[in-house]
Structures are given as structure tokens and as C-alpha cells.
Amino acid sequence: MQTAHILLINGSPKGKRSNSLRLATSFVAGLRAQLESQGFAPIVDELHLAELNIAPCRGCFACWKSTPGTCCIKDDMQMVMQKEIGADYIIWSFPLYYFNVPGILKNMIDRQLPVNLPFMSANKDDYGSGSHDTRYDMTGTKHVLVSTCGFYSAEGNYDSVRMMFKHFLGKDSYAEIFCGQGELFRIKELSERTESYLALVSKAGQEFARGGIAEETKLSLKELLYPKESFEAMADASWGISKDGAGKLPEDEIFTRQMAALYNKDAYDGKERVLEMRYTDVKRSYQILLGKDGSSVVTDGSHTATTIIETPYSLWSSISRGEIEGAEALGKKLYHVSGDFDLMMRWSTFFGAGSARGGNGSGAQAASAAQEQDAKPQKKASMTTMLIPWICFWIAVAIHPVTGALITLGVCALLPLVMGSRPFVIWDRLSIALVAALSIAAYGSGNSDYTTTAGYLLFGLLWLGSCLVKEPLCATYVKYNFGGNQALRNPLFMKTNYILAACWGILYILTATWTFLLKRAGAGISVTIINNLVPVLMGIFTGWFQKWYPARLAR
């Protein structure tokens, strides 16, 4: 089996604690997996320059004139050059220091002089005014630069890095992954967002092994982990000192300010909110003001809180790191919520989707809000798709069973085309299938009373049947308002929707019952009025219950 040598050069003074190294190892993991799938046997060497003894270049040129190809300094650089010469892939991993590479990496680059010949040569790619050919044939070596920086974006900050590597590697001879907000990769509370980025870096490694990183992946890698305002507010708070020079901030205040920085002002719905965090173990409280222009933190309690969370700081920070499920902690009464519970139900909307492991709607998410930044907007299922066939059937068939059945069958056939921009879920498909079967029965029998009544019964059974699966019917459609699939991990959200699904199911089974009895009694007009009024009242109840019930459980 043919081998493939991968050399990862870690140029960070932090060594194995490097943030850039996390990206580089993810890239190598993808590269390695793809090479293995292609029948290669990858051999990976990691060189952590912070652990090596590499002295500065003396500029004596002994490696050119006295001992050609051999440096007069006897240290670890000889080993580094041998590994470079034998590598098929070289991954250069480093943080951005003063708009270039760290000193230990520049030092190692300076010491590469022995691999070059002393004689002047023309620059083959017209970059720079001169060049030196290498002593060894390294034309097949592929290079990748992987780096993080402390700015909100990498754009505009790597010009000197690119220029240096172009000089000694050649123009357009390397790939690059430059990522801003590098310090976020060490923060466990933000792992959901950073892990998704690392998965994208691994994908880039796979693509590189196949010939090059795809343009779509390159664009995704350039996306910000967090918006500029959020990142800079988090970064400023992380220093733990106040801008007015008042001194060092307590850890819980730093945490709260970073949590506030994750507020998504686009979620503002016209309602000003004041979230009060009462940390019972450290005996301090903070208010986070959430408005149309962003968020701010006040420490004097001067505002009237709309939502109050009473929790030990140690618990809330543990929830944010995913060490304990927030919904579980709430269920065990380890923390308490009072006031407007809507903020808790929509936490991921206000503080970013995927914010914590506690699950949307439990109020368990803390500072670890990780915003979804998909290249394409998420398509959302619509309950309208499920309801249209039923409504059409009940109205059209009631007017005329044969003509109404044909109209309803036409609606069922056209619905996938008309609603094609939205995903069709299982309840949409079942509804179309059931309504189509009922329409055929109405067409064949010419009877509307029995088929519409059967429709109420089947509709009720559809709702009740959904209570037996992991995602009840209503949750499938409303979860998008509470963070998407994350809402399904929240017991409060799920319990609420199971109860509502059961209520709707029972309602329509009762509707089938009284429809059958009242029509036999000749009270057709009363049936029409009741059957139109009751769902409206049930809708009002649903809107109230989905706010009241989770708040009641939380208290």
C-alpha cells in the first residue's frame, strides 16, 4: 500500500493548547480519512515548535559555502528539514501575532536556508525580484496554511503572511484556512458553534485530498462564528476589567456580560425585556436589557424585571458548558423562573439557536448560544400543508359529495406542487392519503354525511396517534419557533405538545360523535355552527395553554 506523509507544523507558542491547532488537527483528520478511502496509508507527524530546540539563524551562510546543505548549528532543525523533505503534505498551523507568524515559526522558517541553493535564479511565477532553487525536488509537496486570529474576521489581516509564504513557497502554491475569533475555540460554552466549524474544516481536508477545497466550502469557512458586535462585546468582557478603570470584574459578571453579548437584536418583537439573573450562591444580581438596538447589562437593579432566573452561578455556568441538562435541572427545582416565561421558551431565538444543552424552552440555555449560520436558510414545515386537504374535503364534499370529492382529489394532487417550497413531513403525507381515500369513498357512495363524519374521526385519530411517537403532530410544525430540532430535547416543550395533540385528537373524535348524532336528529344547521366554532375556541385555548403550562411547570 502506498504511503502518504503528512507533516503538521504547529508554530504556536502555546504548543498543544493552541486554538489554531484545533483547526489544523480537524483538517488533518479529514485529509487522512479521505486518503485512506483512496487506498493510501497516511503517516502523520506533528511537530510542536514550542517543544523543540531551534536556535536563531546566524546568517553565516556556512550551509551554502562551507558545509553545503548542512547547517553548522546542531539542534532539532536538522530533523525538521528531513521531515519537510519527505512530506507529501505540510500543514502550517499558527496564530496571527502582530499581523504575521509567531516568532518561533519565523525562526524555523529562517533556518530552512540549507534546503536552498545559493545561486540566484529567475522567479518562475513572477513574484518577487529573485529566487533560489531548492536542493531537493519538492514540487509535489502540497501546503496548507491554517491560522486563527483575535479579530472578529480574518479578512484584511493576513496580507503580510500571504506575501511571505508566496515568496518561499511560490504564488498560488498553497491553500489557506484563516479564521477570525480564534479564542472562541477554547471556550467550552461555545462548543456547539465551534464544533460545527471544525466539522467544516475536516470537510475541507477531505476535499483537499481529492484535489482542492471546494469554492462553496471556502465561502462557508469565511463566515463569522458570531456577528461582529457580539464577538467584540464577548472579547471585551473576557478581559475581566472595566473600561472605566474601576478594576477587575467578578467572574459571574464577566459571564453575564458575555451571555448578553449573544443577544440577537433581530429577534426583537416590539417588546422591551429585562432579564434579571439572581445568582444565589454569590449573592449578586444583574439585569440584561434586551431591546431593538441590542443588549446591555446593569448592576444596580434599577429596572423592573420581566423575567427573573434565580439560580446558583455554578449551576448556570455548568448548564452552559453542557455538564448538566438545563431541563433536568429545572425539573429538579435546582433553579427557578418567574415572570414572563415566553423569553425562556424562545431562548434560542433571542440568544442564538443551539445555545445550550438544556434544550429550547426550558430556560436552561445560558451563555453558550451558538448561532446557526447555514449557507442556506432552513426550510420550515407548515401546518397549512396538512390542514388544506381536510378543510377542502369538509367544505366541498358537504356541498356536493361527487363534485366536492373531485375538487378535493385535485387539491391533493396539486398540493405538493403548490407547497413545494416547504418540506413535506409525515403528517402532510398521511393527511393527503387519508383525505384522498375519503374523497374516493364520497365519490363512490354519493353520501356526504358519513364520509365527513368519518373525516372528523380519522383527523382525531391522526392527532391521537401522533402522541405515540417521539414527535407529536403539533411539535413538528411549531418547533421552528423554539429553536428547531433542539426543542424536541426539552421535556417542557414536548410535554406541552403531547397534551395539546391529545386535546385536539379528543376534540375531533367528539366532533365525529356529536356530528353523527345531531345529523341523525335533524340538527344539521347546529352541527355546522358548532363544528366551526369549536376549533376556533380550541385554537384560543392552544395559544393560552402553550404559554401558561410551561411557566406553571417551571414555577
The fraction of residues assigned to DSSP E strands is 5-15%
Helix amount: 40-55%
Distance between the termini: 64 Å
Question: Ranges with pLDDT <50 over ≥5 residues?
Answer: 353-377
- What is the gyration radius calculated from CA atoms? 32 Å
Count the helices. How many?
20
Say what oligomer this is: single chain
Largest sheet: 5 strands, parallel
Please provide the count of β strands.
12
Alpha-beta classification: alpha/beta
Form type = elongated
Order of strands across the main sheet: 2-1-3-6-7
Kindly state the mean pLDDT as a whole number?
Answer: 87
Description:
The protein has helices spanning 19-37, 62-65, 77-85, 103-110, 159-169, 191-209, 215-221, 228-238, 251-261, 313-320, 326-331, 342-345, 347-351, 383-399, 401-418, 426-445, 449-466, 473-478, 491-520, 524-554, and strands at 3-10, 41-48, 89-95, 116-121, 131-134, 142-148, 174-179, 273-279, 284-291, 294-298, 307-311, 336-339. The protein is built from 20 helices and twelve strands. The chain is elongated and about 115 Å long. Mean pLDDT is 87; it is low at 353-377. α6 runs antiparallel to α7 (215-221), α14 runs antiparallel to α15 and α16 (426-445) runs antiparallel to α17 (449-466). It has 555 residues and is α/β, with parallel strands linked by helices. 47% of the residues lie in helices and 14% in strands.
Secondary structure elements and pairings:
Layout: E1 3-10, H1 19-37, E2 41-48, H2 62-65, H3 77-85, E3 89-95, H4 103-110, E4 116-121, E5 131-134, E6 142-148, H5 159-169, E7 174-179, H6 191-209, H7 215-221, H8 228-238, H9 251-261, E8 273-279, E9 284-291, E10 294-298, E11 307-311, H10 313-320, H11 326-331, E12 336-339, H12 342-345, H13 347-351, H14 383-399, H15 401-418, H16 426-445, H17 449-466, H18 473-478, H19 491-520, H20 524-554
Helix pairs in contact: 1-6, 6-7, 8-9, 14-15, 14-16, 14-17, 15-16, 16-17, 17-19, 19-20
